[in-house]
Amino acid sequence: MSDSLERLYQAVIAARDLDPATSRTARLFQRGPSKMAKKLAEEAIEVVIDAVNGKTDAVVRESADLLYNLTVLWAAAGVKPEDVWREMERREDLLGIAEKMPKAVKAPKTAPGKLPKTTPTPALRRRIVALEGHSIQKRR
Ligand SMILES: N=c1c2ncn([C@@H]3O[C@H](COP(=O)(O)OP(=O)(O)OP(=O)(O)O)[C@@H](O)[C@H]3O)c2ncn1[C@@H]1O[C@H](COP(=O)(O)O)[C@@H](O)[C@H]1O
Question: What stretches pass through the bilayer (predicted)?
């Protein structure tokens, strides 16, 4: 899938300078990030609605539109697909998809004039168990 997305990203970059009258992508670049963001949000909502209504084929089609609009926004934001793949690999290295840390219980009172402790006390940290075949690596 990443190959398709990378080819699409290159096509979007190439289309950026085409005539907006004939190229939707060029038109999106001409109208700017807020229009791109609006289209991306619209597609995301269309995916959600079709998924909730069990319209699998429509979810596939709208997901392709969503990915197109996402690559356009990436290009406008100066994000490359490999930037996203690197982040996903970083999270995978951290034992699968990074889970949200548990909500910290009420932190101990801070003495007046002292800075509150920002890192959760050891008791608040969730015990990390390495996934099978993974070694626990320090967060990069
Ligand atoms: N992959 C896509 C792609 N996927 C989806 N879309 C467009 O995004 C639309 C989906 O968004 P909407 O549902 O909002 O479409 P719409 O409601 O018809 O459009 P609006 O009313 O919002 O204007 C589709 O109808 C397509 O026109 C795409 N448009 C272009 N590409 C590729 O982008 C590259 C550049 O193409 P041009 O933009 O045509 O130069 C080429 O490689 C294309 O294949």
Answer: none
